[in-house]
Structures are given as structure tokens and as C-alpha cells.
Write a structure and sequence with these properties.
Layout (H helix, E strand, L loop, with lengths): L32 H6 L19 H7 L7 E2 L4 E9 L8 E8 L2 E5 L13 E10 L12 E6 L2 E6 L3 H27 L3 H4 L44 E2 L6 E2 L6 E3 L11 E3 L1 H24 L8 H6 L3 H14 L6 H10 L5 H17 L1 H6 L1 H9 L7 H17 L1 H19 L12 H4 L2 H15 L20 H21 L37 H10 L10 H4 L5 H26 L6 H10 L18 E7 L5 E2 L8 E2 L2 E6 L33 H10 L4 H8 L22
Antiparallel strand pairs: 1-2, 2-3, 2-7, 3-4, 4-5, 5-6, 6-7, 8-9, 10-11, 12-15, 13-14
Helix pairs in contact: 2-3, 3-5, 5-15, 5-16, 5-17, 7-9, 8-9, 9-12, 11-12, 11-13, 12-13, 12-15, 12-17, 13-15
GO cellular component, one term: ESCRT-0 complex
InterPro entries: PH-like_dom_sf, PH_domain, Znf_FYVE, Znf_FYVE-rel, Znf_FYVE_PHD, Znf_RING/FYVE/PHD
Keywords: Kinase, Metal-binding, Transferase, Zinc, Zinc-finger
């Protein structure tokens, strides 16, 4: 009893820390064995990858034993309440915060409700070490205490119970171990200098002169720097500055406060403009995905047990699963039924959702026109799903979208424009919209949609699983130079580590590629079959799927993907040309909107004359079971411009050529050839007829196609303050 510490009057006795002295067993297949043997074990590190009967990691086993605790492990990391204060003496008690630990990234919030959005964190740091603390303060004595060393300082921390303390220590040691192995793998690969440019958590860049990044200087502009704001600063309108870019802004466009971890000289939440805050949200999500992937790739030999997942299903979920399995086996179960089932069971168990998605993947390959018809509904279901609450369902729906993009170019472009429209709504780019009036649920869709858009482009522009991605700032993400370098480092690490795990850039002869079972079989352009490509559906999807989807979940993608001939160079040219040409048509309509209504029809021929047709420009409004219609020429003398209150809808006539079959790639071939039951049906003839402008006009007038257009032109155009009238009464109109 003499060795026990004496408790102060009115304080809580000190409890000894629970020591976990299990040996460190590293089960890893992504680094040479010699390097793993040389890897030093962290001091007092518990068992990180020890094999357990339930195939759970040590931190997951500890979390499963907590009953009635506020600390829990989610798909993104560890979260719970902690009492903490900066290291040092103090007379006040430590404050209670809700904290989240994603890999080595530590986030601190004032309440649990704020933690649903990482941008609400008032502290974002990188954990470097965890050690014991006796819990002795100047006036208080804390139980279950430990000390966290972060990039922003050292903090004294106290958990609510001994088991929660053990869980926090276990998870931190696992995350630090994974971060060290990540940096070691990156040092072995080519272009290691760019991979090692950032810290293990990716919060800051390493500079050769070891100087810390300094915030930009204030620009002192006389007016608000926001592109849609013309406020001039004076005695009645105060000038504010964004600490990330240095722009001068009004209070309406600089009301966000968030930490800037890439600027170590600034501590605490800093004022940011709306554009920089949008970049902050995107960077946070990408950084968290990288951290979750880094931590999970080192425990691939001990994934979450699927048997335990089944045993935890409630009785009603088991009954629902059996009912769904019986329903999808009905002969008349179609694509529309699967879409309705996804909506109906969006809050049921993940196993039920997996069965429906697997059936829809099979139907999408055999009934592609029906799948294309319901594609907008599927996309909006994915966009409205909260990825943190329903990460498995969110990933399964993303798999459906990425698989559809591999079927046909029309599906890929449709998904691109759906994502582009969602991003525009989240940013307030639409006519008459403002960032100040965008609801919060739309703003939250920006980061996942932007990441999915990057994943779609990397899926299309890959070459046998090899990606060469170069991040460039755009209107959506106006990044500063240091943020551009950080985002590029995140993508480089994600791509390099996945390619390393797939054996595509192995540097040692004793490398053994990992076996992943949730990626479909692909047929590269060279004719070889690579069965376990983690990059087939895009690296961002692969990173999330490897962390949240059990390896036992096998998916059927249909014969169209497995047996399709592919020509990446042609597909990439068609995809990029189609997107650029449609954007050019949209800019043409926007230019006509700035012209007075009475002069729009006269200005149309001049605008069309400036429009050049690229080689791979196709009619965008067809379906995947129809042949592609390539634009041959523009009918400059035809077409018209309608007048509405907000826009100037433009009707343009093109001469087209039907491209029935493209033998080089099935991605450009009509989908009906893969499942049509009418084998003897003759394909439509290819139309290759050239007409001059006068002949085209005679054909249009002979078929009475232009009669309604002449009627509309005879009507008085609407004023800018009049409401739109979709119905046009032609009884009082002048004859054409």
C-alpha cells in the first residue's frame, strides 16, 4: 500500500492503465519481407494485426466489448467524447469535446451534432505519438488519462473509462503503424519524391529549407473579390480578408471559419471565403479517404468477418432478405422493380441492398436501354445518400454508376452531365442562383460528386489500369499553389499504392500481389485478361470499396464488360470531344441570352458560323441501343432562338451520319447487339447523304416541320419581366 499514490482530498483515485502486452504480428502483403522485419515496433504498442477467431482487428475487438459507451468505431474511424487540454499546468478542469480520429487525422468538435460535417471542426491535427500520463493536474486528478502528441502541440487527454482509453490507444497505434508503412512503401516506388512531399497524414508539405508555409498577404482591394459580388467597401460596409487566398471580401462571402492545417503558423479556425471553403471541404474528404485506405490496406488478411455480420442481422432483416431474394428470382422482375427496391430498402441492412444491387448489375447488362431510362433516378438516389451514415449503400450505388460508364459512351456522358449539374447546383452556378441561398444539403453534395467525377474521368482515361492523373485548378476548385500540390500528392499516393498492391509497379522479386474479390474481370486492349484489377472501376471507388465492402461480396458485371474489345485511345478521344463540343453549344446559347430578344434570330447564323465541328462530335440525345449519329455539317441558315424569361433556348439543325458499328470497341456500338432476341433482324442502313442548305430547307418545309417555328416567330417576344408561357396559341398568328 505504500507504493500506491495518495489521492488528494475531494479527488478521484488514480487507476492504473490497462496494459496490453500482446506481441506485434504484422500480416502484410504490400512490402518486401526483409523491410517488414526491420520495421521497429512502437513503444508499448498493443497487438495490431493479431489473428483472432472473429477476424477482427484489435481495435474492433475492443470496440465490440464496449456496452453503453459513447466511443465507437465507424467505417471512417474512431469517434467519442474526450476531456482534453493543452499540455501544461492549469487550475481549471479539462473541457469535454467530441473527437474523431480518421487514420492519424484528429478532429475536435464542440458537440456530437457538429461532427457529422468535418468542416465544423475547430481543430484539425495529425497525431504523431501517444503515451501514458499520470493524470495529475494542479487542482485535479484525472483517471484514464494519456497524452497525445500532434502536429499542433501536446495535449493531455482523459477518457470516460479504462476500456475506452485502451480503444483510443489501440487505434492510434494502428494508425501510426499504417502511416509509417505507407511512407516506407512510397519510398520504394518511382517518383518517390512527389509521394513523400507531404506529411504522413497529408496536412502539410515538406519543404527543403524546413520553413513553414506562411499565409498570403492581404490584397486590400476596393471591392469584393467574389465574381458575383460588386459591393464597394466604405464606412457602411466593412472589408474582410480570406486567410487562405488573401482576397478582400464582404461579410456575406466570408462567413466561414475553419482551420487551415496546411498553414502551420495559423492556429484555430480562420476566416475563409466561400470559394476557399469549398476547396477546404473537398480536400478534407479526399484526405480522409486516403487515410482510411492507408489504414485498411495493412490489415487485408484480417477483414471484417462476414459471419459476424450475418449473425448481427436482426430478425426482421433476415425476413426482409429472404423476401427480397424470392422477389428478384421472379421471371418478370425488371430494372424498374430493382430501382423501386433500392428506394424501398435504402435504410435496411446492407446485405439486403447488396442482393438488389447484384441483381441490378445483371439486369443492366442484359436490359441496357431500360437501365439507361432509369439512370437519372439511380444517380439522384446515390447523390441523396449520406455517405457517412450509409457508406456501404453509397459505395454500392457508386459501383452501379461506374459499371454503367463502362458499358457505353452515352451512359458515361449522361453520368458526367448528371454529376456536372449537381456540382453546379451545389456551387450556385445556375442563372439567378447565389451561393448565399443554396441549402446545406446541396452544399454537402459537392465534395462527393466532385470526387466521383474525377473517378469517372480516371476510369475513362485509364490504359490497362494505368492512370496518369494531373490535377488542375478549375472554376469549382480554385486552389492555392500549396493546396494544388497537396491534392496532387493525395492522388499520387492513392494511385501508386493501389498499383503497388496490384503488382503493376512492384520493385522487388518477392512481391506477392493481394487477392481482392470485389473487382470484375476485365479484358485489356492487348487481349490479356487481368482478373483482380483494383483500378478497373476507378481508383477512388477502389479505395473506398476495399475498406467497406467485404471480400466475399462477388458481383456480376455481365458479358458486355468481360468480353468487350476496347480501344482506349479512340474511346478517350470520343469522350473528351463530346464533352467539349456540348459545352461549346451551351456557351453559344449563353451568348445569345445576352442579346436582345428581337435580335437573337439574326445573331444566330453568325454564332453558328464560328462553330467548328470536331471529328468525334455525335448527337447527344439518342439512346444506347441506337447507333451513334456523327455531326457532318451545321445548317447555318436553319434553326431559331426562342425567348423565355431566363434563357434563350436554341434550336440547331445538323446533318448527321449513322455509325452503326465500331468494330474497334464495343463502347461505341449500339447496345441492342448484345442481347437482342431477333437474330435475323437486318440492321438499319448507314445514312451518308449530303444536302446543301437550300435542299435541307425544302425538306423541312415539305414535312411541315418548320410550321410551328414560323408560328412562334410571328408572336410578340416576351419582355424580361414577363412569365414564361409554355403553351403557344397559333390561331392569331400570321401565316408563314
Amino acid at each position: 500500500m505504500a507504493d500506491e499514490p495518495k489521492a488528494r482530498p475531494g479527488s478521484v483515485p488514480v487507476l492504473h492503465t490497462l496494459l496490453l502486452d500482446d506481441p506485434l504480428v504484422i500480416s502484410r502483403n504490400s512490402a518486401p519481407a526483409a523491410l517488414i522485419e526491420e520495421l521497429p515496433s512502437p513503444a508499448s504498442s498493443p497487438s495490431v494485426y493479431s489473428v483472432s477467431p472473429s477476424n477482427f482487428t484489435a481495435s474492433e475487438q475492443l470496440a465490440s466489448n464496449l456496452v453503453g459507451s459513447t466511443t465507437e468505431i465507424t467505417s471512417f474511424g474512431l469517434c467519442g467524447f474526450l476531456n482534453m487540454r493543452e499540455n501544461g499546468p492549469g487550475i481549471h478542469r479539462m473541457r469535454r469535446y467530441y473527437c474523431r480520429l480518421i487514420g492519424v487525422l484528429f478532429y475536435r468538435f464542440f458537440s456530437k451534432e457538429q461532427s457529422r460535417d468535418l468542416s465544423n471542426a475547430h481543430m484539425e491535427a495529425e497525431v504523431q505519438k501517444i503515451e501514458e500520463w499520470d493524470g495529475k493536474g494542479m487542482m485535479h486528478l484525472y483517471r484514464n488519462a494519456f497524452r497525445l502528441t500532434t502536429s499542433h502541440g501536446v495535449f493531455n487527454v482523459a477518457a470516460d473509462s479504462e476500456k475506452e482509453k485502451a480503444l483510443w490507444k489501440q487505434y492510434v497505434n494502428e494508425a501510426i503503424e499504417a502511416a509509417q508503412l505507407q511512407m516506407r512503401d512510397a519510398a520504394l516506388l518511382a517518383h518517390s519524391q512527389s509521394l513523400l512531399a507531404a506529411s504522413p497524414g497529408g496536412l502539410t508539405l515538406f519543404r527543403s529549407n524546413k520553413e513553414k508555409e506562411k499565409p498570403p498577404k492581404f490584397k486590400g482591394q476596393p471591392t469584393c473579390a467574389h465574381p458575383k459580388c460588386t459591393v464597394r467597401f466604405d464606412n457602411t460596409k466593412r472589408q474582410h480578408h480570406c486567410r487562405n487566398c488573401g482576397d478582400s471580401l464582404c461579410s456575406d462571402h466570408s462567413y466561414h471559419f475553419a482551420p487551415l492545417p496546411h498553414l502551420p503558423t495559423l492556429s484555430g479556425p480562420q476566416r475563409q471565403c466561400t470559394r476557399c471553403f469549398r476547396v477546404h471541404r473537398f480536400t478534407q474528404l479526399l484526405r480522409c479517404i486516403l487515410q482510411v485506405f492507408v489504414k485498411n490496406r495493412h490489415q487485408r488478411n484480417s477483414p471484417r468477418s462476414t459471419t459476424l455480420r450475418h449473425s448481427r442481422m436482426a430478425t426482421e432483416d433476415v425476413a426482409i432478405l429472404q423476401t427480397v431474394k424470392e422477389a428478384i428470382n421472379e421471371p418478370d422482375f425488371g430494372v424498374s422493380d430493382a430501382i423501386q427496391a433500392l428506394h424501398l430498402h435504402r435504410k435496411d441492412s446492407d446485405e439486403v441492398y447488396r442482393v438488389i444491387v447484384q441483381k441490378l448489375l445483371s439486369l443492366s447488362a442484359t436490359h441496357m436501354p431500360d437501365f439507361e431510362f432509369f439512370l437519372p433516378q439511380l444517380f439522384h438516389l446515390w447523390a441523396s445518400t449520406e455517405y457517412e451514415l450509409y457508406i456501404v449503400k453509397w459505395t454500392l450505388l457508386l459501383r452501379l454508376l461506374m459499371t454503367a460508364a463502362m458499358y457505353h459512351v452515352r451512359l458515361a456522358t449522361s453520368i458526367h452531365w448528371l454529376m456536372r449539374a449537381t456540382i453546379d447546383d451545389a456551387c450556385g452556378w445556375g442563372f439567378g442562383q447565389s451561393e448565399l441561398n443554396i441549402p446545406e444539403y446541396l452544399k454537402n453534395r459537392f465534395a462527393p460528386c466532385k470526387l466521383a467525377l474525377f473517378n469517372l474521368h480516371m476510369l475513362v482515361y485509364q490504359n490497362d489500369g494505368q492512370h496518369n492523373f494531373k490535377f488542375q485548378p478549375d472554376e469549382d476548385l480554385r486552389t492555392m499553389p500549396i493546396q494544388t500540390d497537396l491534392i496532387q500528392t493525395y492522388f499520387d499516393r492513392l494511385l501508386a499504392l493501389q498499383q503497388y498492391d496490384e503488382g503493376q509497379n512492384a520493385v522487388t522479386p518477392d512481391f506477392v500481389p493481394s487477392s481482392t474479390h470485389f473487382f470484375p474481370v476485365s479484358t485489356p486492349s492487348n487481349g490479356s485478361v487481368r482478373s483482380n484489377s483494383a483500378l478497373l472501376l476507378g481508383p477512388l471507388y477502389a479505395a473506398v470499396a476495399s475498406c467497406v465492402l467485404p471480400p466475399s461480396w462477388n458481383f456480376d458485371t455481365g458479358n458486355r464488360v468481360r468480353l468487350s474489345p476496347r480501344l482506349p485511345s479512340l474511346e478517350q478521344s470520343v469522350f473528351s470531344t463530346q464533352l467539349r463540343f456540348i459545352d461549346r453549344l451551351g456557351k453559344l446559347a449563353e451568348a445569345l441570352r445576352g442579346v436582345t430578344p428581337v435580335s437573337r434570330k439574326e445573331a444566330l447564323p453568325d454564332q453558328l458560323a464560328q462553330l467548328t465541328l470536331p471529328e468525334y462530335a455525335y448527337y447527344p440525345l439518342g439512346t444506347c441501343d441506337e447507333p451513334l449519329r456523327r455531326f457532318v455539317s451545321i445548317c447555318i441558315k436553319e434553326g431559331t432562338v426562342f425567348t423565355t424569361k431566363a434563357r434563350a433556348p436554341t434550336l440547331i439543325w445538323f446533318e448527321v451520319e449513322n455509325m452503326q458499328n465500331v468494330p474497334e470497341t464495343l463502347w461505341l456500338t449500339p447496345a441492342q447487339a448484345t442481347y437482342s432476341h431477333v437474330e435475323n433482324e437486318a440492321p438499319p442502313q448507314t445514312l451518308q447523304t449530303a444536302l446543301n442548305h437550300d435542299e435541307i430547307g425544302q425538306v423541312l418545309r415539305h414535312d411541315n416541320i418548320m410550321s410551328s417555328l414560323h408560328t412562334i416567330e410571328a408572336l410578340q417576344p416576351l419582355n424580361d419581366d414577363e412569365e414564361d408561357d409554355e403553351s403557344v396559341d397559333g390561331t392569331d398568328a400570321l401565316p408563314p
